Amino acid sequence: MKIVKRILIGVAFLVAVPLIVALFVRTDFAVEREVIINKPKADVFNYVRYLRNHASFSKWELMDPKMKKDYKGADGTVGFVSAWDSDNQDVGKGEQEIKRITEGERIDVEIRMRSPFQSTDPAYMTTESLGDNQTRVRSGYLGKMNYPTNLICLFVADKIGKDMETGLINLKTVLEKQ
Predict the structure, then answer these.
(1) What is the pLDDT of residues 145-158, one digit of tens each?
(2) Where do the domains of the chain lie?
(3) Which fold has domain 2-177?
C-alpha cells in the first residue's frame, strides 16, 4: 500500500509542477528577427509584398514543395489570401491574409492556422533603408497560447525564431543573386 501511495504522490507531483509553472509563464509572445540585404529598399519591399514570392525563401514553404496552395485576390494588395494544405505536420494547414500595407515600409498579415493546431495571429515584415544599396528587413510574429498550453511558449517562440532566421537568410540569398 505504501508503494501505491508513493506512486500516486509522484504522479500528482509530475502533473502539478508543470501546471504551477504555467501560471507564471506569459500567455503571449513576440518573435522578431532581422537581416541586412545588399539591395535597394524598393527592390526588397516590392519582392516581399507578394506572398507568392515567399515560396522562394520561407522555411515553412520550402519544407513541403508539394503542398496544395490556393490564392484569392490580387497578390501584393490588402485582402489577398494565400492558403496551404500540407501532409507535413510541421507545415500543416492554414492561410495568411494581407491586412495592411504601408507602401515601401511594412506589410502586415494575419496567419490563420487550421492544423495541427488552431490559432489566428498577426505577423509582419518591415524594410528600412540603410543606404542606397542596403536594406534591413525585420520579420515579426505575435502569438498567444492560453493556460496551461502557454508552457509550450517557452519552446515555440525559439523554434519560430530559428525558422524565421532561416527564411530571412534564404531571402537575402535569393535577392542578392538577382
Answers:
(1) 777 776 776 677 78
(2) 2-177
(3) Alpha-D-Glucose-1,6-Bisphosphate; Chain A, domain 4 (3.30.530)
Whole-angstrom Cα distance, residue 76 to residue 101? 9
Instruction: Put the strands of the sheet holding 93-102 in their side by side order.
Output: 28-37, 134-144, 119-131, 106-115, 93-102, 81-85, 68-72
Taking the C-alpha atoms of residue 151 and residue 146, their distance in angstroms, rounded to an integer, is: 9
For residues 123 and 33, the answer to whether their CB atoms sit within 8 Å is no
Report the interhelical angle of 41-48 vs 153-177 (nearest 10°). 120
Strands 28-37, 119-131: pairing is unpaired
Mean pLDDT for the chain?
A: 90
Residues 98-145 pLDDT 10s: 999 999 999 999 999 999 888 899 999 999 999 999 999 999 998 877
Within its chain, how far is the Cα of 167 from the centroid? 10
